[in-house]
Amino acid sequence: MEDGVEEQTAKEYVGNEQRFSVRTDLALEARELVGDERSEISGVRYSVRREGDYEVTISVVEVLNEEGEKAMGKPKGRYVTLECPELKENILEAHQEVMEILTRELRRMIPLKDDTKTLVIGLGNRQVTADALGPLAVSGLLVTRHLYAVAPHELKDRIRPVSAIAPGVMGQTGVETGELVAGLTDKVKPDVVIAIDALASRRTSRVNTTIQIADTGINPGAGVGNFRQELSSKTLGVPVIAIGVPTVVDAATIVSDTIEYLQDTMKAQGGIQMHIFQNFSEQEKYQLIQEVLKPNIGDLYVTPKDMDAVAQRLGNVIAGALNMVLHHLEPEELKEYLY
Predict the structure, then answer these.
(1) Where are the alpha helices (DSSP H) in the chain?
(2) Pick from 170, 281, 294, 309: most CB atoms within 10 A?
(3) What is the mean pLDDT of the chain?
(4) What is the CATH number of the domain that holds 266?
């Protein structure tokens, strides 16, 4: 298309009442939509570093005030994202490295005392492979609330009262998950709730390679446009820490990434340079692709073919980090109690 036509199309599209929006649960990606890595965003603090043999990228996005909330579309709080391409592979050394970094970052975020009572919620549907992360992670936790009162003194000093549940989804129970969690929180009276859930990403490269933790709670299903009751300090009355991994992307993301990769490859090889969407912003490009695809394929979300094995490994990484955070036990001791 000619430049003038492209510019007009973009402007007309943006004014189309925002019928389509970029689907992502990651604060890092929300920031990317607002500006690049070097951009200063009012009310938002951003930092990035790399650590370890596998060069795990650790990005920290802090939404500081209402101005930052408006710019990001995310509630005020701290969001930490770990990225490691080897996380989706069966590389034990990489998993161990990510687990150690995740353990450290969780300790910084979760307010823990020696007797802190923790309730861990494994959100999602165990029978749907791409949504089974929460239940899989919960199944690897050392739960001790039922033992804490009768534990011998030497052990009691090394464990905390931890309870955990995978409540399923509303389609299985007929009850809003937020209502179940609120009722359980009211009965168990934990000092902190940790919610684990599968997320959606706007980058195919981040699927199964990224872990986000946040102290703001979580809106289950938000990334795929299926908004459920939020789990947060506002709704539960206690701090809520969210842990998530993007396990799906939508079709528009795949098309957008494919066009971008194709353009980069052709440019690198000195071939014909394509100028598709050259006058479009990232969000405008995505939304136009989504508008074209939606009448033909609807809301299509895609997950890798080996998601079942990857989900189990990711669940083990998250469970391992939480066990280290919530108890004063060495990894070998944890194995004895778990198996």
Answers:
(1) 3-14, 27-34, 66-72, 92-109, 133-138, 145-148, 153-156, 170-173, 177-188, 233-236, 251-268, 282-297, 307-326, 331-338
(2) 170
(3) 86
(4) 3.40.50.1450
Helix 27-34 and helix 282-297, axial crossing angle in degrees, nearest 10:
120
How far is it, in rounded angstroms, from Cα 118 to Cα 193?
A: 6
List, for residues 197-219, the tens digit of each pLDDT value: 999 998 899 999 999 999 999 98
Number of domains in the chain: 1
Q: How far is CA 308 from CA 123, 136, 312, 322, in A?
A: 16, 10, 6, 21
Q: Which residues contact 305 (CB under 8 A, 6 or more apart)?
A: none
pTM across the whole model: 0.85
The CA-atom distances, in angstroms, between 96 and each of 53, 105, 194 are 11, 14, 21
What pLDDT, in 10s, does the model give residues 140-170? 999 999 988 888 877 888 999 999 999 999 8
Q: Give the tokens for residue 106.
A: 């969780």
Exposed e or buried b per residue across 116-150, where buried means at least 16 C-beta atoms within 10 angstroms of its C-beta: ebbbbbbbbbbeebbbbbbbbbbbbbbbbbeebee
User: Does residue 258 contact residue 271 with C-beta atoms inside 8 Å?
Assistant: no
Q: Please check whether residue 230 is in contact with residue 219, taking contact to mean a CB–CB distance below 8 angstroms.
A: yes
Six-digit token string for 302:
């895609």
Q: Is the pLDDT of residue 29 over 80?
A: yes
Q: Which domain holds residue 274?
A: 3-338
DSSP label of 274: P
Structure tokens at 203: 């980058």
What's the rounded Cα separation, in Å, for the pair 331 and 324? Answer: 7
Mean pLDDT of 263-290: 72
Which of 288, 324, 285, 315 is closest to 103 using CA atoms? 324
Check: CB of residue 72 under 8 Å from CB of residue 116.
no
